[in-house]
Design goal:
With 243 residues, the protein is of the alpha/beta class. The chain folds into two domains: 102 residues, Translation factors (Elongation Factor Tu (Ef-tu), domain 3, Beta Barrel); 109 residues, Nucleotide-binding domain of ferredoxin-NADP reductase (FNR) module (Rossmann fold, 3-Layer(aba) Sandwich). It has five helices and 13 strands. Strands 1, 2, 3, 4, 5, 6, 7 and 8 form an eight-stranded antiparallel β-sheet that branches. Strands 11-10-9-12-13 form a five-stranded parallel β-sheet, with helices on both faces. Strand 9, helix 2 and strand 10 form a beta-alpha-beta unit. 33% of the residues are buried. It comes from Pseudoalteromonas translucida (strain TAC 125).
Amino acid sequence: MSRQIRKAQVQITPHLQRIVVGSDEFKDLTPSYIGHYVKVLLPHNGKLDLNIKTALMRSYTINHVNEQTGALTLDFVINMHQGPATNWAQTAKVGDTLAIAGPGPKKLDNYSHSHYVLLGDLTSVNAVKGYAQQLPHSAKIDMFIHAPSAQDIISLDTLRPVNWLVTNSPDESMLTALNNLKIGVQPPIVFMALEAGLVRKVKTKLNELYAIPRTHIVASGYWKKGLNSESYKQQRQQAAQPA
């Protein structure tokens, strides 16, 4: 179904472009969906494909939902990676049309644990933000988020401490940060959404240092170094096909 979109476009940091999307069809959405993801169907060559199987599509975490209209606030990473979503965000104007599929469920679904470790970067900062706001107040939470510059640090609207790793060497910084986790008798639940290669390194390190079982790790490679978003999507689709 085609949706007429209204956008308010703000570049909130050197690498984040904030866009608000909405229409009359969004009125059933509520703030309870903050932290969930939606599939954004983007126009390609001036046309919008509404077939979920063939559309030019990317996933984005909901940053905010307007209580009155249901309009969604989404943050697009810019000036870091190449791809159709980045290109669209940088040139979007009021009156452009796209479509939204979802919202889909959160990837982390255990909200009764005593300790969580949340690892992210600018591509996943709103997912981390959503969990930080909704995990139990009694739980211990260790949060580490990579940002390429101090200007990219944004508020996560939480009183919980956030460790911002401001560096051009995210792999080294993220892996070093994990050395000082205080792990109790019960292993923590880990959510990570990072560059695909770093996800593999972090999984290995968590196993070596703390023997955290894979069942306690919810991991996503949101992007891959050296590949634009379309190439990475195709690579993942090929890897998922049976041999």
